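User: I'm curious whether this sequence folds into something compact or stays loose and floppy. Could you predict its structure so I can see for myself?
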Amino acid sequence: MKLLAKFNLMLVILFGAGLLLVSQLSRGFLENNAREQVRQQAKLMISSARSTRDYTEEELDPLLEKTPDHAQRFLPQTIPFYAATVTFNHLRKDYPDYTYKEAALNPTNPRDRADQWEADIIDYFRDHTNGPMLFGERQTPTGSSIYLAQPIVASQGCLECHGSPANAPPTEISTYGSANGFGWKANEVVGAQIVSVPTEVPLAIARQAFQTLLLYLSVTFLVTLAVIDVGLYYIVIVPLRKLSATADLVSKGDLSQPEFVVKGKDEIAQVAGSFNRMYVSLIKAMQMLEE
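Assistant: Here's the prediction. I'll summarize afterward.
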């Protein structure tokens, strides 16, 4: 095997070992980073939904209550739950994998009723009233899913519609009835804002980042190998081939060869200098024998 092939084989083995080590170390890091990215996006979505709820309750609802339609029919636009959900549905056009639900244990609208796992989250917030956002992972019929949840605490304004049926707007009673959505108390955790996303989403992000990393590393290696090969060829291989060809002719008795041109002070130049001295000594020895 020639010198350049041996050198390339050594580099390929070293790069393969390094690539294997990098892949093992980077995969977990990229997956954790992708999960954190999804978590931050979900956190931003919950904050946006919370802002929509506050805006609806503090500014939009007081305005709509003064309209003639409000006294004649129920306007869902005055309900913070409704406003946050509709706003998020518009956001899903850009983030179709994310789902949002304002789950409650005793909602006015049956579609907002908490499932069992959502009820467990609400119960957790009731037991940990000062706890932070809850981030976790659960198994679903379609696979693993990541969720981020934040408690919904009933404010004094919520009691106008959710305190007692007697005090609720007549249009609300005519729309949803008086069986559900009442009995709330101020400062009580009544539900949770929950953003869910399939675990496959961050894993896909991590896989894409991992493939991109491997691609960049491979391209960098190939370019580096090509540059090293070119340098090795002209700095080492070409001079050695010329020196080998000259030595071969001299060994066959051809003493008409000029001295090998020496440039630089590296090991190749030292070998060439040694060869030239040996060649000159050989010529002198042959001349002495002839005399």
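Summary: The helical segments are 3-64, 68-72, 80-91, 116-127, 159-162, 170-176, 200-251, 267-290. Residues 27-199 form one domain.
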